[in-house]
Amino acid sequence: MSQSIVHLLDLPIEILFLILKKLDNIDVLYSLFGINNQRLDILAQEQIFSNILSFVAISQSTDDICSISDSILNRFRIDILPRIQQNVKSL
After folding, report:
1. Residue 80 is inside which H or E element, if any?
2. 2-50: per-residue pLDDT in tens?
3. In a domain, 73, yes or no
4. For the segment 2-14, what is each residue's pLDDT rounded down to a tens digit?
5. Domain count, the chain
6. What is the extent of the structural domain holding 39?
7. Where's the F-box domain (predicted)?
């Protein structure tokens, strides 16, 4: 029996877009910016992922409000926000 291996990057851009829309915008931007893959980098810069950014999260298990770590905030401030600033409508 022959097995076919499909990698995430083999998926059509439309499928990748649907998958990424299920994630939090902050997670998409933080995870995909600067990973040396032009296709994912371009996808992450879509307005749907960068127009509204919330740096506060609610824990699903305890309903507590959690803030994002300083290292993540620094990466956003230095690397990510300057590249997407034209798309950001709300922080």
Report:
1. none
2. 677 878 888 898 999 899 989 888 889 998 888 888 888 888 888 888 8
3. yes
4. 677 878 888 898 9
5. 1
6. 8-90
7. 5-52
